[in-house]
Amino acid sequence: MRIEKMKLEHRVKVGLLIIEKFKKSYDAFIMLPRKYTLESDVSDLVNEMIENEKAVVLIDDDIIGFIDISYEGEMFYNKQGVYTAEWGNCIPSNNLKGCLLLLNYIYDYMNDHKLLDHTISVMENEKGVIEKLFNMSYGSRCMDAHALIENKSFSNEMTIREATMDDMGELKTLLKILHKHMQMPPTLIGMSYSKEEPIIKKWLSDDASKLWVMCDANKVIGMMKTVNGASGGCDCSSDDETLGIQDTIILSDVQGQGLGKCFVDFVHDYGQKNGFKYLAVDFETMNPTAQYFWPKYFTPTVRSLIRSIG
Length: 310
Hints:
This protein has helices at 11-28, 39-52, 96-112, 127-135, 168-183, 196-205, 259-273, 288-293, and strands at residues 2-5, 55-60, 62-68, 71-74, 80-84, 89-90, 117-123, 139-148, 159-162, 209-216, 219-228, 242-250, 278-284, 299-308. By secondary structure, it is α+β, with helices and mostly antiparallel strands. A 10-stranded mixed beta sheet has the order 4-5-7-14-8-13-12-11-10-9, sandwiched between helices. It has a 4-stranded antiparallel beta sheet with strand order 1-2-3-6, sandwiched between helices. Helix 7 (259-273) links the parallel strand 12 (242-250) and strand 13 (278-284). Helix 1 (11-28) crosses helix 2 (39-52). The two termini are 30 Å apart.
C-alpha cells in the first residue's frame, strides 16, 4: 500500500470514488441535494485537484482512497492551516493503515510549510472515518444540516417581514448581540467581525439574499437571513434548489416561546412558494444554542473537524 501524487491517469477512478461516496450519503440523507451523481458533476473537482498538485491517491493494487488540500491560508484564531473539502477526501473507514498514510501526507505538508491547523469535512454517514479522526485528536468544529421543504402553514401573531434600511438600528443591535455570543465562552469562534452596519447594508442590497425580521407589534425581536442556492457551509450543501439559512437570532428575553420554530416554518413556506426543494443551515458545534436548536428541525449531514498541532 502506498500513496502517490494524483495524476491525469487517476482521474476516472477518483471521479468514481467521489460518486460512490456521495451515493451512500444520498441513500442515508434524502434531504441532501443530489449534486454529485454523474461523472460530469465531479469532473471539474477532479481536474482542479490534479491541476493544484496538492492531492494524493491511496493505492493498494487499485486506487482505494485519496485526500486533497482544497485550501491553504488563514483559518481560525489567526492560524495558518489547510482545509480538505467533503469532496476532497475518500478515506477507507475499515483500513487504519490507509487512513494514516493519507493523514500523514497532510501532516508532512503542514510541517514543511509551518502550518498549524487541518480542517476536514466528512459526510455524517461516514461514522468509521469520523471515529478515526476523533482518535487522531480531531475535534468537531461545524455541522451542515438539511431538511426537505414541506408544506407548513405559517400562522403566528408575530409578524415576519423583509427588513429595510429603516430597521438599521435594531438590526445593528441584533447582529452585535450575535457576534458577541459567537466570540464569548463557550462558543469562542476564533474570528473577528467587521462593523455591523456595512455588513447589514451589503445584505440588504444583495439580490441573492433576503433579511427577515420578526416583530412583536412595532418592536423587532429577531432576524434571519436566507440565501438562494447557498448554505454558507460545504459545497455539497449548495445548489439551485437549496435555500440557505444564516445569521439567525432572537432576543434572549423572548426565547423559549417557540419563535425560532415560527421562523423555520416561515422559511419552509417561503421556500415552497419560490420553488426551492431543500433547506440548509450550518452551525458551529461548540455553540450550545445552535447545537440545541437546529437539529430539532434539520438532519446533520456534513461534519467539519479540526486538528491543531501548535
